[in-house]
Amino acid sequence: MSEINWPQLREAAIAAMQKSYSPYSNFAVGAAALTADGRVVSGCNIENASYGLTLCAECSLISDLLMGGGGKLVAFTCVDAQSNVLMPCGRCRQLLVEHAAPNMILETVSGFKTMAEVLPDAFTREELNG
Ligand code: THU
Questions:
Q1: Which atom of ligand 1 is nearest to the CA of 87?
Q2: 17, 29, 39, 64: which could join 57 in a potential S-S bond, CB 3.0 to 4.6 Å?
Q3: Cα 56 to middle of ligand 1, angstroms
Q4: Are 27 and 47 in contact (CB under 8 A)?
Q5: ∠117-97-118 over CA atoms, to 5°?
Q6: pLDDT exceeds cutoff 60 at 2
C-alpha cells in the first residue's frame, strides 16, 4: 500500500467530483482509482430527470477504465462535494468487485480496507462458473 499515492488519488477524485452533473440531489460525487499498470481512472455522478437512471460516480469510473484499455483496480477512493471520503453504495461495491485486483484497497470512512472487508462473500463470476 505504501506505493499508492493516496493524496494524488484523492485529488483526481476531487477533480472528477467538480464535473458532477447532479442538479436533482445537489450531491456531487467523484471517484478515482489506480490501475494495476499505473493509470488513474475517475468518474463523477450523472443524474437524470428520470431519477432512477442516475449513474453513480463509480459507473463512470468503470467506463473510464474500460475505455482506457481495461485492467484491474488496485486502489480506490471516493469523495463528496466537501472532499470528504465517501463510501461507495452497495450497488457500486458490486460494480467495483468485478474489476478489482485481489488486493485492491479502498479508502473508507473507517480507514483503509480491502474489497472483501467492504463486500464480504461477494457474488462474482466465479459463482456463475459453478
Ligand atoms: N452516489 C454516487 O455517485 N456514488 C455512491 O456510491 C453513492 C451515491 C451519487 C448518486 C446520486 O447522484 C447522489 O450520489 C445522491 O445519492
A1: 6
A2: 29
A3: 5
A4: no
A5: 20
A6: no
